[in-house]
Write a sequence for this structure.
């Protein structure tokens, strides 16, 4: 039987999942495919988790427009989908008098881009607001609309809400090529069969160049991964309560010292342009660079309190800005190309892609309307993704009530982050089932603490095997090829 | 199942320290003694230590870990110690309320007249030593691998490189070899062993497993599962020596790079921690700065022998029982114990010198640098020597002790502090 959809979204990062969720609001069948064993495995899985205010992108670019519009949409998004988001504002910190003029440039950008709530603060005021900051601070741009979020939970929640509203999600499903009818895309071929659709949306992130080239669009467009490395601190030891950017350079927004919604302070990223789209390695030189950059803002940090390091890749594109007179060739691409019908093309959605994602989804809807789609809202569309219990965030009183109701929430599996068996089981049987260790980790925050999974790993493997009805030998860290265990130990002869 | 909500002594953790504390608290006259254990069996990490080497100090026997634990399990149960199994303590308050949670017993709230913290320690991870490279499956701490092999009966790898010469790493090198895996190499960044010499001899030498000092892992390769590690020699400042790199194909990297006392609960309870040991400051009864909260074993400082943990547990159990019964030591008269030349740390960090009138006080120390000749361990008050002891050698991997006896009380009575020093003889 031929599978026929109205919309196929290629790629399960934050952009793909929020687009799928937005499309699920309208009549029509939606399919999202993701080549990995879980959604949220690429760029969305490893970044600074910041919802940027919008003073950074060059004015009149699509990046600037999407950023500012997207930022304003996060309160509703987080409210409907029930994931952690805090609009706590951010600082761009000028160190020494030399850096101070850069703040004025950003302030000009902020005004042109229409970013509300920005002001330049003098050095002493910045020190008063964040006592850990370097005494050499000469001032800071304060942007009250800057936010922090949990990108994993945002992405999972959006995808789950899409599924609740009738969308389908197929994991371990890799796009191979388009099925064309003349100049019209009518479907895709994947490693798991062919799927037909009236529209296909390219949300392939690092691989968005490959996808658009398969459709014959923008042959000159190329994605180069820009790698950023990070340090994560133990929240019991390091408490930086703010989001601190350095002044930006030609390498990007620079190395931050920032808090997260989980309370851990993180440092990073550096920005190294590489070629290998699988290379998420941390390096000695990268870690040294981050350390130097972060210490410039906050000199009191100690490596003793580092509990994790990681690296992520941004899909840096070479898309030219479409606004006449703006000379910029790293803009977002969000378009319906003229040369191919049935194809919505996105590319180069690097930072501030997370902040922009709800606006990009709206932009896609607007483009579809312009292309003649009716976009009729479903009568029974439900925008709410209910939250699930988070034991570690509860008071002792609420914990007692929860455990009385369901004793599985009484068994703590991750001792550092206090994640319970009940929460793990809930994720395994959620609308998008978590079937790997990392999938559980991203959804529950288990294994992210001081012992980095040393305690919980054997227990999570056991629970996954039990709930999925497979042998523990089949359980993986993050899908094919990443098994934890090889074979049983030798048998004892009696 | 929990019989009441108030206990004389509650012990958190049932490893060698916790069980010994329970036994001694009972013997000292505490009525109601409860042990809370997060796993489903008593014994703590001893249960996964199926190798021998336990009991030499206390029983003059060579026992495997589970047998060693069983002696204390049997004794504590015979003495009427109560247990709460498969239960994790979430919070301890300074006024000794305990919040704990369990699938079996639900959410419980207990008040204790005295508490013994016996949570043990956790392993240092890859991130703490910041090994660069990819983050695939197949990088395990040695203790996690030990649990997989000895408790779950599953092999976490076939071709293994071990970083660090800590005892668990050495033990796992032999264990994995027994199970048919190939241990390619053990690398130690220091120029000497972190673990016990006997473990080096019995676990590496006897199985021809190569050990390289001054070597570390420079990079981890593999997208999904470990495919290789690059190792390199380091100089005195731990910088890689160019040209010394070697690629070792493997599917697993085990880390045995140190242990850290586990004190998250202690912190919540207001217990002050020693930044050198990572554990609470304690006196000779193993009481912390919070009255009625005691701590024993690896939660205080990391030991190399379980027997020593047991002995520390006795002290804490006794102290806790006396506190619960309100038999306090006479007026407190504490002086600090200072780590002097070539001493990394000393436990206890303070002593109540009045207690020395009637009882011995053992000082436990680790040295900073090895001395491979006859060595003098000495205690002085800043001017005069109080006691001394000669050791054949001292090594950071092996704890040393020196005992203060009631006859030293006269020397200590006027001292405002005492210092422990280690020098070549």
């Amino acid at each position: 039987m031929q599978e026929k959809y109205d919309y196929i979204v290629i790629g399960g990062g934050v952009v793909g999942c929020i687009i799928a969720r937005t499309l699920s609001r309208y009549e029509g069948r939606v399919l999202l495919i993701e080549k990995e064993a879980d959604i949220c495995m690429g760029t969305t899985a490893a970044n600074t988790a910041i919802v940027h205010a919008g003073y950074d992108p060059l004015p009149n670019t699509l990046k600037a427009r999407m950023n500012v519009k997207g930022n304003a949409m996060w309160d509703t998004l987080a409210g409907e989908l029930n994931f952690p988001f805090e609009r706590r504002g951010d600082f761009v910190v000028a160190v020494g008098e030399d850096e101070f003029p850069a703040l004025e440039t950003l302030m000009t950008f902020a005004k042109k881009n229409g970013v509300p709530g920005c002001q330049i603060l003098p050095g002493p005021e910045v020190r008063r607001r964040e006592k850990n900051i370097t005494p050499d601070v000469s001032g800071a741009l304060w942007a009250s609309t800057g936010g922090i979020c949990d990108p994993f939970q945002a992405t999972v929640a959006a995808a789950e809400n899409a599924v609740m509203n009738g969308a389908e999600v197929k994991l371990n499903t890799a796009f191979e090529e388009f099925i064309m009818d003349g100049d019209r895309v009518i479907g895709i071929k994947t490693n798991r069969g062919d799927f037909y659709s009236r529209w296909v949306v390219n949300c392939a992130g690092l691989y968005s160049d490959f996808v658009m080239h398969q459709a014959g669009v923008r042959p000159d467009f190329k994605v180069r991964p820009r790698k950023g490395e990070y340090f994560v601190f133990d929240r019991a030891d390091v408490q930086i309560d703010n989001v601190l950017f350095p002044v930006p350079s030609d390498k990007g927004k620079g190395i931050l010292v920032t808090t997260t919604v989980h309370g851990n302070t993180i440092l990073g990223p550096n920005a190294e342009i590489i070629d290998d789209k699988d290379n998420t390695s941390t390096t000695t030189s990268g870690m040294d660079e981050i350390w130097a950059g972060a210490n410039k803002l906050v000199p009191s940090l100690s490596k003793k309190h580092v509990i994790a390091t990681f690296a992520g890749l941004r899909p840096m594109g070479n898309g030219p800005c479409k606004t006449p007179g703006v000379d910029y060739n790293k803009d977002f691409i969000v378009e319906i190309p003229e040369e191919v019908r049935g194809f919505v093309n996105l590319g180069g959605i690097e930072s501030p892609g997370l902040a922009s994602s709800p606006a990009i989804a709206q932009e896609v809807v607007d483009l579809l309307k312009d292309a003649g789609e009716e976009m009729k809202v479903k009568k029974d569309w439900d925008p709410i993704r209910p939250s699930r219990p988070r034991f570690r965030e509860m008071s002792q009183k609420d914990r007692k009530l929860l455990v009385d109701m369901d004793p599985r929430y009484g068994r703590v599996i991750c001792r550092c982050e206090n994640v319970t068996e009940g929460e793990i089981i809930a994720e395994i049987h959620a609308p998008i089932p978590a079937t790997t260790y990392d999938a559980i980790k991203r959804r529950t925050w288990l294994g992210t603490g001081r012992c980095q999974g040393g305690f919980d790993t054997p227990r999570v493997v056991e629970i996954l095997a039990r709930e999925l009805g497979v042998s523990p030998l089949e359980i993986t860290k993050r899908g094919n090829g990443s098994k934890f265990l090889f074979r049983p130990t030798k048998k004892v002869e009696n | 199942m929990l019989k009441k909500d108030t206990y004389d002594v509650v012990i958190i953790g049932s490893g060698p320290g916790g069980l010994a504390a329970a036994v001694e608290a009972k013997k000292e006259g505490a009525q109601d003694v409860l042990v809370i254990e997060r796993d489903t069996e008593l014994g703590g990490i001893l249960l996964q230590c199926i190798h021998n080497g336990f009991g030499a100090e206390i029983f003059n026997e060579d026992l495997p870990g589970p047998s060693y634990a069983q002696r204390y399990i049997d004794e504590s149960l015979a003495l009427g110690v109560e247990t709460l199994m498969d239960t994790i303590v979430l919070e301890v308050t300074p006024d000794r309320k305990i919040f704990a949670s369990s699938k079996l017993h639900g959410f419980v709230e207990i008040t204790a007249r005295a508490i013994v913290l016996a949570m043990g320690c956790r392993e240092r991870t890859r991130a703490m030593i910041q090994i660069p490279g990819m983050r695939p499956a197949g990088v395990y701490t040695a203790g996690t691998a030990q649990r997989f092999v000895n408790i779950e009966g599953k092999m976490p790898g076939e071709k293994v490189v071990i970083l660090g010469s800590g005892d668990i790493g050495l033990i796992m090198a032999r264990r994995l070899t027994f199970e048919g895996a190939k241990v390619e190499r053990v690398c130690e960044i220091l120029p000497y062993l972190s673990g016990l010499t006997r473990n080096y001899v019995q676990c590496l030498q006897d199985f021809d497993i190569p050990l390289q000092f001054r070597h570390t892992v420079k990079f981890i390769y593999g997208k999904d599962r470990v495919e290789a590690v690059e190792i390199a020699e380091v100089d005195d400042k731990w910088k890689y020596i160019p040209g010394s790199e070697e690629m070792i194909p493997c599917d697993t990297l085990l880390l045995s790079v140190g242990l850290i006392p586990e004190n998250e609960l202690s912190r919540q309870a207001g217990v002050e921690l020693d930044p050198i040991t990572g554990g609470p400051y304690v006196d000779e009864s193993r009481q912390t700065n919070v009255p009625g909260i005691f701590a024993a074993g690896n939660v205080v400082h990391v030991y190399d022998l379980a027997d020593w943990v047991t002995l520390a547990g006795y002290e804490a159990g006794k102290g806790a029982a006396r506190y619960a019964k309100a038999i306090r030591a006479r007026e407190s008269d504490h002086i600090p114990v200072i780590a002097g030349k070539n001493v990394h740390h000393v436990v206890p960090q303070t002593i109540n010198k009045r207690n020395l009138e009637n009882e011995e006080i053992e000082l436990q120390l680790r040295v900073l640098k090895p001395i491979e000749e006859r060595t003098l361990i000495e205690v002085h008050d800043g001017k005069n020597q109080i006691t001394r002891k000669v050791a054949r050698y001292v090594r950071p991997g092996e704890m040393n002790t020196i005992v203060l006896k009631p006859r030293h009380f006269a020397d200590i009575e006027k001292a405002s502090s005492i210092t422990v020093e280690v020098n070549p003889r």
